Each structure stands twice: as C-alpha cells, then as structure tokens.
Records
---
Amino acid sequence: MTKIIAVLGCGLIGLNWAEAFLKTGFRVQCWDPNENVQSQIDVLRDRFSGAQIDYFSRVEDAVNGVEFVQESGPERLEVKRGLYQDIENALGAETIVASSTSTIMPSDLQKGLSYAARFVIGHPFNPPHILPLVEVVGGNLTSEATVTKAYDFYTAVGKQPIKLHVERMGHLANRIQAAVWRESIDAVASGQASVADVELAITAALGPRWALMGQFETFDLAGGQGGMANFLGDIGSAIEALWDDAQRPVMTDELKAKIVAETQKLVGEREFADKIKRRDEFLKAVLAAK
C-alpha cells in the first residue's frame, strides 16, 4: 500500500487532504507555489505526533519517490495541465496522479500526458478531512486498473469512494448540489422566499433527512408499504411536473448584491475561522450519530 503521498496545491482543499492522509499514518510531501504555506504545514506537523510532512519548493522534488499524487490546484484547465507537464519526468513508472477538480472532466485534463493511463479524478467533498465521499472517475485514456487502485487507496485512508462510469462536468454530487442551488437562487430571484427562509427549508427539513438517507430511500419511504414502485406510480408524476416548471435564474448584478446582503445578515459577523470550526464540529457530530 502507498506510504508516501504528494499533495500538490496547499490551499484549503490540499491542506485538508494532507490532514486526512496524516491521520491514517502516511508520509506527505507538499508543494505549493506560495512558500508561505510552510507555516500551515508546520501547524499540521505539530498537531499530529510523529507526523511526517514536508514542504518542497520544487514540484518535481515533491513527487519524487511517491506512489500517489493528489493534485488540488486552481480550478483552471490550463493551470492544471501545465502542472501535470511539469511533473511528467519526475514521476515513478507506476505513480497514480489524481485530481481534486470539482468540475473539469478527466479526458480534458489527461490529453497529451505520457502517463494518461495513470490519471484519474479523485474528487472529495469539502472538508475532505471530515466528509468521507470521494468520486473516482477516469477519462478516455485511464486504465481500469488505475480506477480500481485509486478506489482501493481512498478506501484505505478511510474514505467512502464511488466509481462514476460516465464523465460529466461537475461529476455527480456537485451536479446534485447545483440543482439545489439553482432552485435556491430562483426562490430568491422570484421573490418566493428570502435567503434565510431558503436556508431554513434545507436545515429544518431536507438537510436532517439527507444526513440519514438519500433521495431514493426517502421516496421509497414516501411510497408507504409499496415502496418505490408505489411512489413512482402514485406520487412520482407530481414531482416530475416540477421538473417542467424549473427555471434557470439570471444572475444579474442586482440579484448578486441581494444574495450577498441577505447572506451576510444570515451569517453575521463571525470570523472565518469560527465559521469553519462551527461547521466542522457539526459535521463530526452528524457523522458520529449515523
């Protein structure tokens, strides 16, 4: 099993990945173009007794001797492809490179790479050191062995990976999230509800239910004793009618300003670090209760 992992890009996601890897006993080699991240890496080293984590100023050195690379750089195609080319000659013959990209499809990222067969998407959900989901999806040139190895690797570090068999922009969970976001924005844009009321509709109804069961299990229960078959035959058509009524809101400057103002009122003046701490504590409690 992989013992040394490279984390390329040490922003919020990259550092959270590093924390997750350290927790499961792996040695981590980090790189980021901003050398100031060394102080945050030092904090991680001090937090975990015996943690092996180092910063490298040269990306080629960061991937030296590793069997798995987790890239979490900026969400821009040209930046990521440039980074992959920079490490090409430094990678081991069997090293797997996984990207944390939220929206870019793997076939677009792996074009022209000599190691394209060993390239895969390993998309976490923020914060990745707490939430267990990782979406694993290969591109046109990715070998099935790479997908399997990546899946097994994420399982070994305590994640709950899923294999996606079709490439789609945004993968799976983000597309579900985007659909909810579209409806949330439309509710505010149409005057149906305020930002605070949309939040309450999720946190006081949908959210607690989703923490226990997904949409399929939820609607299976909605079908009563007849389960999903009864739901699809009895209630499903009413839900399908809502699909036809869905609107794509236009994000005007006025609407953006309204959303920003109402969100600021909702979240208050708490410091960013306090918001993160509150979120993480709640997520840990929810996961522990399952």
---
Amino acid sequence: MASQHMLGLRWGVEQRLEFVETRLFWEGFVNRSDLIDTFGISVQQASTDLNRYLALAPDNMIYDKSAKSYVRRETYAPKFFKPSADQFLAQLRSLAEGTLQPDHVWSMGTTPVEVATTPARGIDVMVLRDIITAVRAKDALEIEYQSMAKPEPLWRWIEPHAIGFDGFRWHVRAYCANDSMFKDFVISRIIAVGERRSASVCAQDDLDWQQTVTLTIGPHPKLTSGQKRIIELDYGMSRGVAEIQVKRAFLYYTLKRLGLDVDPSTRRPQDQQIVLLSMSPPLDGARTDD
C-alpha cells in the first residue's frame, strides 16, 4: 500500500483518493457527485481528485461516457486501502443494527441486510462514562451492583482497568475489594456509581487478563469429508485446524460462544460442527464473573 508520505499527499487528499478506490472496489464505479456529496467539496475539486487518482493508478479505472462515471477496470489493484471482508461485514452489521449511520461509511451501497438481533442491553451512558473515566485515570470506583449470586444489590469498591465484550454483553474487568480478586462485572447490572479514589492495584496484577490461552479447534471427526472441508473454510482452518488466541479471563465466554463448553458427544456432529483439540496452557482456574 502506498502512503501519503510516500506520495507526498495531504491527509485530506489521501482520504478522498481512498474513497475513490473504496467505491471502485465495492461498487464498481465512482463519479464526481459521490465525492461532492461525501466530502462537501466543489465540482472543480472533485474533478481534480479523480484526475489525480487516474494519474496515480491509470490501470484501476476508465471513464464510461454512457454511465457518466469512472468504472473499475479488470486490472484494478488498490494503492490506498486494503480490502477487508471483515471490515465490510462489520460495517454492514452496524448499519443494520442502527449503531452506524449510512453517511459514515463509503461502500455499503444498497445492499439488503438483516441480522439476528438480541435485546438491547440497558447500559446507562453516565455509568459507562464514569467507568471509562476511572479506567483511564486508574481510579477505584464505588458501585451499586446486582449480582446473580446475591438476592439484593450491594455497594462495593471496584478498580476497573479494561472493558470487554463477550459477544452478547459488555463487561468491566476490575479488582473487587469485597472479594479481594479480579472479576468481570456486567455493565448493565451496575445500578449506580458513587465515590472515586486512587486505585491500589494495577492491570499487571490481573494475571488472568495478562495471560493468553491458545485454543486449537478442528472439524467434528464424525462429519463427512465434504462437511469437514466446508467447516475448515468457515473457520479459516489450515490443514484441518485453527488456533484462537484468547485472554484467560475471557476463556469461559469464548468456549460458550463456540459451543465448546459442553461434551461434543451430546450433540449431533452437524450441530456441534467443531471440537476442541487442545488448550495451551490447560485450564486450572475458575470462572470469575459476577
């Protein structure tokens, strides 16, 4: 990938050229109005940007008079961005869920999309702000928290150092002064926030957060050869295995999300699909969520 430093371009110019390239890759065409509508620039500036891009990457696009647009050539090779399926689909999902506005992305077009939604988590934005502030300032925070292990909410002091997402819920990773250990607290279960004070521990003390576990997975052995091949593609496996790096603190959530928290023999191979081949280092601790 070329950079603005290599090409001597200003950041704003490079952004617009990246936009041109992104549109060409995902939509197959781009025109002046696309640049004008997205960046609020003049017709003259839009024409200049397209001509500049054409000079830098003449093999990437050609003008189609009938379409009144530049269209992608078969020799297209990106210079300003790296196409990513993961990024595109993540943006598409965010659009479908309403957490991202259409004018904040460059390449969605009119692609119909639907996602399997889950109930929105009732996270108080002020509580979240206080947590983020405490994490950044390395402060302890007094919270009123409803644990599933207790019948009523309790006030406690926590020392948060990170937040994490388990695929369904947002957690704050923190040292709990009540239990004298690092735990995960579901943010939506924090009812209120009280006082702040300086923290007495640091993130490096949270060994389960600092340590990484490697999970090696493979297709269920009772699948057919064809089914195994498609599972290998689904999970990006090489030679029948894939490795997943996960923080030890989030191991429980990862195993649960992948369906690896149960004995694979209790489910049909077509439902289970993957099995855990190994875990390094092996698990010898307990779950620490609250």
---
Amino acid sequence: MKIKFVIFSIFVVATFGSVSAFATMIDISCPSCVQIPDEATLDLYKEILPIVIWTLDTTYDHQSQIVVSGHVNNFDPNQPVIINVINPIGNLVHVDQIMVDGSGDFETILNTASPLWTQNGDYIIYAKNGSESRIFKTQVRILDEVGFKESCTGSEIPVSASNGGLYCIGHSMLKGATGFEGTLDTQSKTLTITVRGTDVDFITLDIPRYILDSKTDSFDSDFVVLVNGEIANFNENPTSDDKRSLTIMFPPGNSEIEILGTSVIPEFGSIAALILGVAIVSIIVVSAKSRLQLMPYSQS
C-alpha cells in the first residue's frame, strides 16, 4: 500500500503575523493543509521546517485507528506537543499531550470508534509545541465507509485505485457504450475513465467527494478534464455536500477521460513564503554583521 503523507502549514509570527490563542482556534476548514507525495519529500520538509505532522492516509471510517506521527526541530525535551482534534461541526473531540523523544519524533493514535467521532466529514488536527507562534494543523476525512467494495452496480463504473481499493462512480448517458474501465491515482489525484463504444458522445459522472474533489481555499474549484490528452468541454451540474456531477462531451468512439482534482489543497505558497522570509532575515543579519566588521576604528 502506498503511504500518503500529509504536512500542514506553519504559522510563524515573524512571517505571517500574530496567531490567536490555541484554545480559541476553532476552524472547521483546512485551506492550508498540504499533501506531499513521498518519503523523500517528507524528509526534506523535516529538515527545513520547525515541525511536521503526517498520517498514513487522508480518509478513514468510524472503526479506524489513525496513527499521527510528527517531528520537531530545535525542541525542548521538557515541552510536550499538544494535539487537539475538532470535528466537522466545530466541537473539540480529542485532547492529548505527547512528549518528544531524543530524536525529536512523536506519535499518537486517534480512535475513530469513539462516541465523539460520529459525524461524517473533515476532522481538523491541531498541533502546538511551545509558544503560540508554533501552531500547526492538518485534516482527515471520516466516513461511514471509505469506498472499498467488492463489486459495483450496473449504473456504476468500477474504479481500481492505486491504494488497492475498488471504488464505484455513478454514471448516465443517452447513448449506449460497450464497456468502461476506471482507475484512480491517489498520489496525483487523477481519475481516469476509459469509455468504449461508437455512439457515445457524452457522459455524466457522479463523483463522490471523498473519492475526488477540487477546492481552493475551502471553496469548490473547477476540475481539469482531458479527453484523449486534450482539454475537454464539460459542464458541472448542481452539486451536493457528498458528490460533484460532471457532464463531459467527447468525440464518438473509444475515449479516455482524465479528471484532475485535489481533496487536500496543496498550498505550497505558504511554505515558500516561510522559506523566503527566513532567507531574508538571514541576509539582513549577515549584512549587518558584515557592516559592523568593516567599520573603521576611530578614537573619540
């Protein structure tokens, strides 16, 4: 099984302004959560950021144990990491204190079978270590089921995912097709549907949000849709909290449809701003030291 790491944005007072008190930060959206693709990238972020936190997946059911792992740089061994979890309606459902080991690593387990975790939706995980300027967050999605099925109905397209699961995408069309194939790349967040037939010229897909979504700053944004490798015409039908519906037009005949989106918004801009801010501060400090060293000595 491929491991997906989730890294959360860092709010640094010097770079982004002041941060409100940890206990009062009730936010049921997570526009600044960032998904990174592999362990090599995670190792890089562990080197350049003061703290990182990740989970093995982003979607769980109500009978799961979520392993939350993290790493802290420049840490006080006597200072614990505080973990708070907020449910989709803004209620605090979990509080924990975790001590950091000698390598700066920490880990905790969240039990979704708790009676406080009955809501479906996005749960925000807050982490805090030390001062109010070191607050971090990520999110996981909790559902009654996470889409793993043994078979799909006749009105659904079976989709084989790179995480080993079988997902079902509802569809409809006015003209017939001779067959469908579907794949889901959970790393690139790309849904690929192959449609076979000579009379098919459009298809409507009902895509559950937990399978694939596209958001910007917690608001719905357009998917990128390709047909046979080229940008396609499509219409988005009225959506719901659970799914998004797309009607996609394409030339008659066999076609490969690719739908690109993201269910975890990759806001690398925040991290880039952090790195830039640190670099600017370093340059100022070095420049100031250089000027002091070059100042001629004078006697009063």
